[in-house]
Write a structure and sequence with these properties.
The chain has about 325 residues and is an alpha+beta fold. It folds into 2 domains: about 140 residues; about 150 residues, 2-Layer Sandwich (Alpha-Beta Plaits). It has 11 helices and 5 strands, in the order αααααααβααββαβαβ. Strands 2-3-1-4-5 form a 5-stranded mixed beta sheet, with helices on both faces. Strand 4, helix 11 and strand 5 form a beta-alpha-beta unit. Helix 1 packs antiparallel against helix 2, helix 3 packs antiparallel against helix 4 and helix 4 runs parallel beside helix 6. The C terminus is likely disordered.
């Protein structure tokens, strides 16, 4: 958009808009170079668009009425590059600044046509951006949520668990995993049908979501297993949360035909060497809870391995 302005101003010997156009073009190229090197750009999109608008206005007030048509790509760029509030602010500002030029340089009918065209251009661009963002949001939601229960799925859980483990390793911020499994879930499906089994899954999720914090993550791990990722939570506190969930689920009449129980395995990030190891430890604790009679909570049992002996660096001369 700037190259035709630069060429025309050099051709007609207008030094001010030509120098301004070259300066802005150079700044934009430096910005692009910084972004390509994964570095922070020094010109934000609002500042860049404001500078472009200023350049167009300078050209307009110097009598270069063809520059008015450069406002159209600028108006299209507003919703694409900016958040809604900034796009509205700069859109209104653009209209207020361009209006005097339009209605003094053209007759009233032409001015109205140009004004309406600019407004429609902005509205169409904003609607398209909104539609694309909304579709992207829905697709992201479908990719990371379980369609039956509405909680997050295993893929999203693994990403967040990896991040929580990294926070523990770097900043010593505690996190804990609760792995819950509905006891005798196959009996529910066999006795009452799969629709009742689905109701049991949803009912357990409702109880869990009511008993954990908004900062905690509830995920369906697979089948009748669920995971709760407790942020800023030590193993001791996680055991208390797990016991509260187990007791509440047992006391809640999740199905009209009767209640359900869960077994829970608990593991703190302290004992995990990797995300996969963390899940395995929680699963081992759940296995112990199942083996000890179900409807109970067990913590991961981790044996402290002795550190490897440091090899001698001084030879034994004696």
């Amino acid at each position: 958009m700037l190259l035709p302005v630069v060429a025309h101003n050099i051709f007609i010997r207008e030094p001010l808009p030509a120098v301004a156009s070259l300066l802005l073009l150079g700044l934009l190229m430096v910005n692009i170079l910084l972004l390509s090197l994964d570095r922070r750009a020094f010109l934000t999109p609002p500042v860049t668009l404001l500078m472009t608008l200023g350049l167009i206005l300078v050209s307009l007030y110097l009598g270069q009425n063809y520059s008015l048509y450069l406002v159209f790509p600028l108006v299209v760029a507003l919703p694409v590059l900016l958040h809604v509030r900034w796009a509205v602010y700069l859109g209104v500002l653009t209209g207020l600044l361009v209006a005097p030029v339009v209605f003094t340089g053209y007759d009233a009918a032409t001015g109205v046509v140009i004004g309406v065209s600019l407004g429609l251009t902005w509205i169409v661009s904003a609607w398209l951006v909104f539609a694309v963002n909304e579709q992207s949001r829905r697709l992201r939601g479908m990719a990371i949520t379980d369609p039956l229960t509405g909680v997050y799925n295993r893929r999203y859980l693994e990403l967040q668990a990896t991040r929580s483990l990294q926070y523990w390793q770097r900043y010593r911020r505690p996190s804990s995993l609760l792995l819950l499994d509905i006891d005798h879930f196959k009996r529910i499906n066999d006795r009452f049908g799969h629709s009742k089994g689905d109701e049991a899954l949803k009912g357990v999720v409702r109880v869990i979501e009511q008993r954990v914090r908004r900062s905690d993550l509830v995920c369906r791990f697979g089948g009748e297993e669920f995971v709760v990722l407790l942020s800023e939570c030590t193993g001791e506190n996680a055991l208390a949360v797990a016991e509260n969930l187990r007791r509440t689920i047992e006391e809640t009449r999740i199905l009209p035909e009767g209640g359900v129980t869960v077994s829970v395995g608990v593991c703190e990030a302290l004992y995990a060497e990797s995300t996969e190891h963390w899940f395995k430890l929680a699963d081992a604790a759940l296995y112990i809870a199942k083996g000890n009679g179900r409807n109970r909570v067990e913590a991961a049992r981790v044996e402290i391995q002795p550190a490897d002996a440091i090899p001698a660096t001084v030879p034994h001369w004696r």
